[in-house]
Amino acid sequence: MNRMHIYLICLMVVGLLAPSWGEVPDPAVRELTKEEVMALPKESRQEYMRKLIFIKTGGSVIKPDTGKGAVRVVIAAQGIPLDIMDEPFANMTKIVKIDVKTVQGTKPMLVNAKGELKKYAAQAGVYVVEDDTLPRMLVAPEEGWAFVNVKALRDGNVPEDHLTARARKEISRALMFVCGCGNAGAVMQSVTSLVHLDRIPVDTFPPMARNQIIAHLNNLGVEPIHQASYLRACQEGWAPAPTNDIQRGIWQKVRADKERGPTNPILIPPPKAKK
């Protein structure tokens, strides 16, 4: 199993498995052939890959002093549940690891919208309000705020689940505008009516907008977490002290490579070319 194969598998499974690595695996786990891996039941295959990834990389660590700033969705409208954005946020934080949450709050005056974000320890945010005078969405991306008006989403006596689905999409769109994404695909489309909004099949954030999100939020003071494998953290020079035998082995190997001196410096290995 070559490095690229392992890397691709990491992309598929680490997002699901990294938050709960569980017990540190035995370093002596035998590396199976591709055929043996595919013959395993799904759960056993995922558990085997979790162990193999941990053994080869030392698990996942977060670089200190990263992850500054925050983005908040402030719920200031009746009937909108506080957990409305749980699923879209779970999707978003896989794309870019920023501090984004939903909080209960109050509707600010437009002139104070940016300053009011300080109450929620945020540098950017979306206010979900109910107002007779505002349009469906009002965005000031360079200021880092937006309003979503639930009153304009009701359009009569729509069922509550329908309203929640509309609000989730519109909050997602407003947040992406605040993050500097514009019409970037997925939920980020030009919407000219509620019928058009209802026809959008997703409420998730566009993965291709990752770099746009990072660049724009950096200008607003929001910085993503830098997370990497323990092996990469050692190679980059910021790894925390090892906490288990696997990480100690990786630490010692990388340190030994570095101590060989400038004539043979440590290098982050490039992907192997296909034969």
Describe, in plain words, how this protein is organized in 3D:
The protein has 275 residues and is of the alpha/beta class. The chain has 2 domains: 3-63 and 227-258, no CATH class; 71-220, 3-Layer(aba) Sandwich (Collagenase (Catalytic Domain)), CATH 3.40.390. It contains 11 helices and 7 strands. The chain has helices at residues 3-17, 34-39, 42-57, 86-95, 113-116, 150-154, 160-178, 194-199, 210-220, 230-236, 245-258; strands at residues 60-62, 71-75, 100-104, 124-129, 137-140, 145-149, 227-229. A 5-stranded mixed β-sheet has the order 3-2-4-6-5. A two-stranded antiparallel sheet has the order 1-7. α1 (3-17) crosses α3 (42-57) and α10 (230-236) packs parallel to α11. The longest helix has 19 residues, at 160-178. It is elongated.
Basic shape? elongated
CATH superfamily of the largest domain: Collagenase (Catalytic Domain)
Average pLDDT, all residues:
81
* Biggest sheet strand line-up: 3-2-4-6-5
Name of the CATH first level of the largest domain: Alpha Beta
Write down the Rg: 23 Å
Structural class: alpha/beta
Written as H for each helix and E for each strand, in order along the chain, the element string is: HHHEEHEHEEEHHHHEHH
Q: Under the CATH scheme, which architecture of the largest domain would be assigned?
A: 3-Layer(aba) Sandwich
Strand content: 5-15%
Count of distinct strands? 7
* Number of self-contained structural domains: 2
- Main pleated-sheet profile: 5 strands, mixed
Our measurement of the CA-to-CA distance between the termini, rounded to an integer number of angstroms, reads: 14 Å
